[in-house]
Amino acid sequence: MKDAFKTKAKEAATEFSVETAKRMIKPTLLRQPVVARVFNSLPPRLRARALLRLASFGDCVYISVGLYDLESFRDTRLITLLDKFAGDGWKAGSSDWAGADVPNRDYTFAHKFTWEHDKRAIAYKKLAKENQHIPQTFEINITISAWVKEDSPTCRIVTKEFEETIKKVDRFIVCD
To answer: Which of 60, 98, 144, 165 fits 55 for a cystine, CB–CB 3.0-4.6 Å?
Structure first.
């Protein structure tokens, strides 16, 4: 029985040290040159207000910025910023948020990059020693939230009301 405990204790300690190494390696994402380059491509005013965070799960860096009081979604500040991420392998998307008081739209961009590891780091050595998966790529996700002025002459939220008839058929089992 003592041998079983020693074996299980050793396994638990190894698993804990591997998980610790995984947690230690994730912050090195922020030392990747491409992350700094992407972040520094934002205008200085936006960099000061930008949110920078690491994903809880997965290997991803999130950068979120907000542009407020735009004349429209064609505002030069927004277009200039969007042009920085258009193309070059960035996957783009957008979502409208018409439920708010003022028109707003989120623009999202995602791109995968090669993760350049410092092979001298303790966490890297630990994962390599234990033959654990060492991520080779990571993703940068950028969200640009654009808010148009409430009194914008070119953008407004329109509410349409409609009536819909739905015919539904239920099937169920009846047993006596």
So the answer is: 60
Domain range annotation of the chain: 2-148
The dihedral built from the CA positions of residue 94, 56, 130 and 7, taken in this order, carries a sign that is negative
| Reported pTM | 0.75
39-76 confidence digits (pLDDT tens)? 999 999 888 899 999 987 788 999 999 988 888 888 88
Asked if 147 and 69 count as a contact pair (C-beta separation under 8 A), the reply is yes
pLDDT in tens, 120-140: 888 888 888 888 888 899 999
Nearest residue to 51 via CA among 61, 64, 69, 60: 64
The answer to whether residues 54 and 24 touch, using CB atoms and an 8 Å cutoff, is no
Among residues 146, 142, 143, 145, the alpha carbon closest in space to that of 72 is found at 146
The number of beta carbons lying within 10 Å of the beta carbon of residue 148 is 24
Q: Is 144 helix (H, G, I), strand (E, B) or coil?
A: strand
